[in-house]
Amino acid sequence: MEGDIVTLTDIFRFEQTGVDTDGKVLGELKPTGIRPLFMPRLEAAGFKLPPQVFGFGDVSLQGKRRR
């Protein structure tokens, strides 16, 4: 938040790779490399995510379809 303005940043982006024969969009979710500022609160609540989820390392979040 900057003053009275809420700022948002993408932590994942969808890269479209095509469209299948049924007209469904194909692609992948890719991390942007930005770790959310709320991660310490999530971890304190017991939600631990590996750094690779956010693009630190070589783990990719790949999806076949976006609905």
Could you give a short description of this structure?
This protein is mostly beta strands.
Give a topology summary.
Elements: E1 12-19, E2 25-31, H1 39-44
Main β-sheet, in a few words?
2 strands, antiparallel
Strand order of the largest sheet: 1-2
User: Topology as H/E string?
Assistant: EEH
Q: How many strands?
A: 2
Cα shape: extended
The helix tally amounts to 1
Percent strand equals 15-25%
Helix percent reads under 10%
Structural class determined from secondary elements: mainly beta
Low-pLDDT residue intervals, each spanning 5 or more residues: 59-67
Q: Kindly state the mean pLDDT as a whole number?
A: 85
Please give the alpha-carbon distance between the first and last residues: 30 Å
Describe the fold and architecture.
The protein is mainly beta. It has a domain of 41 residues. It is built from one helix and two strands. The protein has a two-stranded antiparallel sheet with strand order 1-2. The longest helix has 6 residues.
What distinguishing features does this structure have?
67 residues; mainly beta; disordered C terminus
